[in-house]
Design brief:
The protein contains eight helices and nine strands. The strands form three sheets. Strands 5-8-7-6 form a four-stranded antiparallel beta sheet. It has a three-stranded antiparallel beta sheet with strand order 1-3-2, covered by helices on one side. The longest helix has 27 residues.
Length: 231
């Protein structure tokens, strides 16, 4: 979501005459404030539409501030490049199929999961944090860097006793299984075909609504302050 409000900015510069030079400062500040306000409201929406989102998901957005030379602020998903890598939340924003996640790409690259399959969390996994993904990949030796993979050290053995992960392509369902004490349960199930999602995270609609409501008052306030403090 990119915010510019160029028509309001041009109008203010024209109306203020000699004091119009203060407008870019006020506009840059307001654009950045608006983007941060959008980020704040989007977090509330995430909590509403997703079941117990992790802190990693709630912090998935970034804000690029506006400057007086570039009167445009941006709020979007970290690391997203729609030509190359889609963020894992984008299927919920746009609907449609999703690409493999970084976790799945590592599994495929190491031959742990067959190509054309997806890893779906089992019903007993609960909230999956970034740390848990890292633990699974380390135990399955899925990292290119051997220092990131689990070893036979006392610490690694202790971690495996608490929660051990292993791959099983013979049992049903195929996937990554988890051993907890005497119980053995599927942690991630490998499924074939593409996964399709319904649009349920109204990111752009919320951003437009927030910017339309927040911008006018904040812009007027910041222009007034810029004029009062002008040298």
């Amino acid at each position: 979501m990119q915010i510019s409000m160029q028509s309001d900015i041009d109008k203010a510069i024209k109306q203020l005459g000699a004091l119009g030079k203060q407008v870019p400062f006020a506009a840059a500040k307001t654009l950045t404030q608006t983007a941060k306000k959008i980020e704040q409201i989007e977090k509330l929406e995430m909590k509403r539409v997703f079941k117990k989102p992790t802190r990693y998901t709630l912090n998935a957005q970034y804000v690029k501030a506006a400057t007086k030379r570039n009167l445009e602020a941006t709020v979007w998903l970290r690391g997203s490049n729609r030509k190359r890598d889609r963020h894992y939340l984008e299927p919920h924003v746009y609907g449609g199929g999703r690409e493999h996640t970084g976790f799945e790409n590592r599994l495929i690259a190491r031959g742990i999961m067959p190509k054309g399959m997806y890893a779906i969390p089992g019903k007993h996994m609960g909230r999956i944090t970034r740390g848990k993904y890292q633990k699974i990949l380390a135990q399955l030796k899925a990292y290119n860097d051997p220092y990131q993979n689990a070893t036979n050290s006392t610490r690694s053995k202790r971690n495996r006793r608490a929660m051990a992960f292993f791959v099983n392509l013979k049992a049903r369902p195929q996937g990554i299984w988890m051993r907890q004490g005497k119980k053995v349960i599927p942690a991630f199930i490998f499924v074939k075909g593409s996964l399709r999602y319904k649009k349920r995270f109204n990111f752009h609609e919320i951003a437009n609504k927030v910017s339309t409501k927040y911008w006018p008052g904040a812009f007027s306030k910041n222009i007034s302050h810029a004029i009062r403090t002008a040298r």
